[in-house]
Amino acid sequence: MREEIEFAAEDGTALRGWLYQPDPAPEQCPLVVMAHGYSATKEMHLDDFAEVFAAAGLAVLVYDNRNLGASAGEPRGEIDPWAQINDYRTAITFASGLPNVDADRIGVWGSSYSGGHVLVVGALDRRVRCVVAQVPLVSGLENARRLIRSDLFAGLRAAFDADRVARYAGKEPEMIPVVYEDDPMSPCALPTADSHDFFLDARERAPLWRNSVTLRSVEMFIEYEPGAYISHISPTPLLMVVAAGDHLTVADLTTAAFEQAREPKQLLVLPGGHFEAYVGEAFAVSSAAQRDWFVQHLGVGRNA
């Protein structure tokens, strides 16, 4: 039902992951392309979602983003949103040529940072027939203003500038932890308690995850505005999943962005916080709704 796969990005970077096939596999079936959020690897519950989708008759391509997990790419820990968006589009191209996959029935799924990516991909790439964005980032700057104290912003900007000078001089990129290890006041990319718990608790499940990203990745996060594309997704169907208690990709920003999307669209609001969407009752509710959205709009069960 699941096999290891590898495909090349446009620049030759090897992207590695899993291909799920429904059992029994039909002659032609729809496929969902999936990648994870900020620094996360596929073992952090993407297999749970993929299994739900595959059981409903969908093929699923799950891969680690470049520079992370099992995928190749340098520098390690570099998270470039536009490179990741381009890799989503390459994954669609790769998947379109797979045996048993109907190239006219491909959907995209993303969560958190990649939830923002699929908004952009859905708007730009008309090969996409269906979009699911779970707890998505919609505005890097506005989100950063919620996560970073205003009196610390000037220092962060100065650190970005110093890193640029150092890289120009030939030095390695400055690194920063994804989450704090012990001291909640220490600098990190995702400075929330639930981020700390999610990532550090997942270390055994995801042994290739590293608590380190380039400082430049944080700068690119702040400059990234995927919500600007949301009104252009239509007529491709969009399901957005929001966690009411989300203070990482905050719910008022995501629901406001959803209002800018055009039909066909659907909003699912879950109780709890950002990371609860991956587990427990919230996962059961959300994964079922996502499955049904893909089944409805990708035509599971019909012939090509």
Describe this structure in words.
This protein is α/β, with parallel strands linked by helices and 304 residues long. Helix content is 37%, strand content 20%. The strands form 2 sheets. It has an 8-stranded mixed beta sheet with strand order 1-2-4-3-5-6-9-10, sandwiched between helices. Helix 2 (81-96) crosses helix 3. The radius of gyration is 18 Å and the shape is globular. The protein starts with a strand and ends in a 6-residue tail after the last helix.
- List how many beta strands DSSP finds: 10
Question: Low-confidence stretches at least 5 residues in length (pLDDT < 50)?
Answer: none
Roughly what fraction of the amino acids lie in strands?
15-25%
Identify the overall geometry: globular
Question: Could you give the distance between the termini?
Answer: 22 Å
Structural class: alpha/beta
Radius of gyration equals 18 Å
Number of helices: 9
Estimate the mean pLDDT confidence: 96
The helix/strand series, from N terminus to C terminus, equals EEEHEHEHEHHEHEHEHEH
Largest sheet, spatial ordering of strands:
1-2-4-3-5-6-9-10
Largest sheet: 8 strands, mixed
Helix-residue proportion: 25-40%
